[in-house]
Amino acid sequence: MLSSCAIHAGFPFICFKKDCISAAWSGSRKEAGGKRGFKQKTKMLLVKANAKKRKRQNQSIDIAKIKVSQPLLESLLADTILGEKFIKIAIRHKGKTQITTIENDSLYLNSPFLTLSKNDRILINYYLNKYTIKNITEIYISFINGGEEDLEKTNRMAIMKMKKVEHYLIKTRVKKSRIKIKINTKR
Hints:
Layout: E1 6-7, E2 14-15, H1 18-26, H2 38-58, H3 70-78, E3 85-94, E4 102-109, H4 118-131, E5 136-145, H5 151-171, E6 179-186
């Protein structure tokens, strides 16, 4: 074989062009890609599916699209009797008058669940729709404990629930800088 020629897989098998000879002698890299194995394909599909799932979960909630029946909402608003332990959400918002005044309104969540129940979310959405998110200046989340039982455990559970409320408010497009958490308030 001649040392100054390049050998190709197809016709013409031997080539004397300058570019072909330099490519043959430089030991050019093989192109990336090629056929992937079954394991690689399944791993890639799983990674893509998990990324899509995380993206869907992290999307913010549009509270204007959530529909609630009026009788259920009225019963939830009427049932704001203060219990022994509850989470208080105080909303400061701009008034509807021409003079820019700041008004307060409060919402009480006294469900025993550690996570937010459907009724809790309905009440929060109602108040966010009522005052529109852009008019809300600050939201204070606090825990009020009327009883004197196991304060450490109760405070820990209350902090966890307040964090859940904060996370839900952030998902509904309330800025985190507007949300403030007060820990362990007594009646």
